[in-house]
Write a structure and sequence with these properties.
alpha/beta; 2 domains; 7-stranded mixed sheet; two-stranded antiparallel ribbon; 8 helices; 11 strands; 11% strand
Length: 438
């Protein structure tokens, strides 16, 4: 496509990259005096493929929006043979398959505003000064896969609630990955193959998008000689966003003509988030089993309504229980349900053969929250469980909150990334890999 060049118009408040019939807005560039926002997409760079022995390693991260009532989550005894408290006792059949952690967090404050840091260790407001922004552990792992799976990662959750939507997953360019919010939408994405006519239309759309990016990318590069250093850095961020979109288009084009697997189940109907949670877990298991993806995140919150349990006041208000006994009982009831579904998910993964082991043997499954205690709006001592992944489990590991032996939660994430196959020596606020992880 031939580029049509336009002179810089520094008096204009809005500036664009232009090609024949194409106009794409530039980010804020002080040298040009304009401000618009670039649209980003999440895929990331290519860095090889992770394999655990003969089977690939998977990663699933499940986050709770409002944390857990600490006395009903954390055991009083450390090491092996500990008693599981009320909220997590449904996990007893799997106690040898997971490790429960206490004392791990990101060392940050902010209450609900720090929730978006759960899988990154970096608040969105602090991402600008970080080498990798606030990229989350799932997206960092996805960067190692290239086009090995149809979906580099799946992000599931609600688009409603106190935060206005799922905040679990973020790209290195600081963009929130929007979630798939219903089981029917997830099922169709995973298993419904387009007919020939729809497929041809999709390919045409991809070709058009690719042409647009080729055009504006060339025009954007021509601007660099007119910009100051600060604006060159901003434009480089913009190029990163364009490259992300290009990689996403390339991946979609690669898989467009590949038939999707047969799930051997009927398309589910959408009900409510509480009722749909078991179905979402089943679909994640199917996605891993069919190698449609090797990475998934699920945020529980938003539409997780207290009314589904016959409770009044709402999930958020129950989390701010003020030590009221009835509110605590209601909160624990909701937490127990979440853990029961997680326990069933672990059982499902254990029941699926995967090479010489099971799907759980080859899947690291993280369960927890970026909120330590919603009642007091604290983000320290986060509730965390890591299951599977071929690791040695069966203990409650407690780390000191400060001083000698202090461990950052990102140390665990760094360990997970390395086990996944990512060639990294740091992540977020890590100070090294997590001690005691085998």
């Amino acid at each position: 496509m031939t580029m049509q060049k336009y002179p810089l118009a520094t008096s204009n408040r809005r500036h664009f990259l232009r090609a024949t019939g194409i106009s794409m807005a530039l980010p804020l560039l002080e040298s040009l005096g304009g401000r618009v926002f670039a649209q980003n997409a999440a895929v990331g760079s290519l860095a090889g493929q992770a394999v655990n022995a003969e089977r690939p390693m998977r990663m699933v991260c499940i986050g709770n929006l409002l944390g857990f009532y600490p006395p009903a989550f954390f055991p009083t005894k450390t090491g092996a043979d500990y008693e599981l408290p009320e909220s997590v006792e449904a996990l007893k059949p799997h106690q040898k398959d997971f490790t429960l952690y206490s004392g791990l967090d990101h060392g940050i404050k902010g209450g609900h505003f720090a929730m978006s840091s759960f899988l990154s260790g970096v608040k969105t407001s602090d991402a600008k000064g970080k080498p990798e922004g606030n990229i989350t552990v799932d997206q960092r792992a996805a960067e190692t896969l290239g086009g090995a799976t149809r979906f580099p990662s799946l992000t599931l959750g609600s688009e409603s609630g106190i935060h206005g939507g799922c905040l679990m997953s973020w790209t290195r360019s600081g963009t929130r990955v929007p979630p798939i919010s219903t089981p029917r939408e997830l099922f169709q994405k995973l298993f419904i193959t387009e007919d020939a006519k729809s497929l041809a239309a999709s390919m045409d759309r991809l070709d058009v998008k690719g042409s647009i990016l080729d055009a504006v990318n060339g025009d954007a590069k021509s601007l660099q000689r007119h910009l100051g250093q600060r604006d060159k850095e901003k434009l480089d961020e913009y190029f990163t966003s364009i490259r992300d979109v290009e990689k996403q288009i390339e991946l979609r084009r690669k898989w467009a003509s590949v038939p999707k697997p047969d799930p051997r189940m009927q398309e589910p109907k959408n009900r409510d988030f509480v009722s749909d949670l078991p179905v979402m877990y089943d679909l994640i298991a199917l996605a891993l089993q069919t190698d449609s993806t090797r990475i998934a995140t699920l945020e529980i919150g938003g539409d997780f309504e207290a009314a589904a349990f016959g409770l009044s006041g709402g999930y958020h208000s129950l989390s701010h229980h003020g030590q009221r006994e009835e509110a605590i009982k209601g909160l624990i009831r909701m937490e127990r349900y979440q853990v029961e579904q997680f326990a069933k998910f672990l059982a499902k993964l254990k029941s699926i053969e995967d090479g010489a082991g099971t799907l759980l043997d080859h899947s690291m499954v993280l369960f927890g929250s970026g909120m330590g205690n919603a009642n007091s709006h604290t983000n320290n001592n986060l509730p965390l469980i890591l299951a599977g992944g071929g690791l040695k489990h069966g203990e409650h590991k407690a780390y000191p909150a400060k001083g000698e032996g202090r461990q950052m939660l990102c140390n665990l994430y760094l360990s997970m990334l390395q086990r996944f196959g990512a060639e990294v020596d740091s992540f977020g606020t890590s100070t090294g890999t997590l001690t005691g992880l085998a």
